[in-house]
Specification:
Helices cover 40% and strands 19% of the residues. The chain is α/β, with parallel strands linked by helices. The chain has a single domain, classed as Inosine-uridine Nucleoside N-ribohydrolase, Chain A (Alpha-Beta Complex), CATH 3.90.245.10. The strands form two sheets. Strands 3-2-1-4-5-6-11-9-10 form a nine-stranded mixed beta sheet, sandwiched between helices. A two-stranded antiparallel sheet has the order 7-8. Strand 1, helix 1 and strand 2 form a beta-alpha-beta unit. The radius of gyration is 18 Å and the shape is globular. Bound molecules: alpha-D-ribofuranose and calcium ion (CA). The site of alpha-D-ribofuranose has 16 residues, from helix 1 and helix 7.
Amino acid sequence: MAKKNLILDVDTGIDDAFALLFAARHPEINLLGVTCVDGNTNLKQVVINTLKVLDAAGAGDIPVSKGATRPLIDEPRYAEHIHGSDGLGDLGTPLSTRALDPRPAVELIRDLIEASSEPVTLVPLGPLTNIALFLRAFPETAAKLERIVLMGGSASSGNATPAAEFNVWHDPEAAAIVFSSGVPITMYGLDVFMEPRVNAAQAAALVAEGNTCSSFAGRLIEHFIKQVGHEVTLGDYGAVASAIKPELSTYETFKVVVDTTFGPGRGQTLCDRRAWKDDGDATHVNAPAVKVAMQVDVPAMINLWLETISGK
Ligand code: RIB
Ligand code: CA
């Protein structure tokens, strides 16, 4: 089977780490590069965490670039209550000796797409600041993208606020630029994000495996469970799985508008679920249609991740 060319944009936190470990190890994925964005924690820490995770995955020489240090308009607002003060479960793993690619994120994304003779899928797993800047700086290259499969948004309710999912809420203007770009988009949002979960027994089994990747993954899960007190979602990983195995999710197509007003709905992804008829409101009429994941094959998603991480 031909490998899928992916570029991941991450705000490495714990579930970004689950996604990176998987993307670096799965045989059907050609991980072209990784870009870092301010999100779960500050950009400096996201870079440190991302390089550590690639070490744990035993990844080869994959280019990693840093991007935006903060959202386009809002001040940064972090999620360390979930991801730990270092954003990676405070595991105390050693710093990586990997060198950062000198190019800024938007240039690395451009160069990787331009250099690829095969289609490329962009998989943002954090706030969409880097992606918005890339779309505005290099629209001709963006038009060559096969698809953007993003973790973000919600066709129902939020997690950062009652209305908004964290990645979109962190930078609503960036999200509005991405959703209205015309690039084909799959939204892997909160409607499915929490479904694929792992428990303490699975974490212990991964730690007992004894290899670097599985014990790192197992310890991350154990930290996460300690934070939240119950089994934990594989989160961002699901978007990567959806990018290479879309058959593991079921989708509906909605016109999506991002609320960028400064009210209680800021950062909401308004999915128009009405039986569509032209109500004359240009905001909705002109919004591009988005494939929204509404259900996932939970056991298949979990097994795919566990098999890939443990190398079985
Ligand atoms: O709302 C969930 C998203 O916010 C995930 O990407 C998680 O890593 C955080 O960035
Ligand atoms: Ca993330």
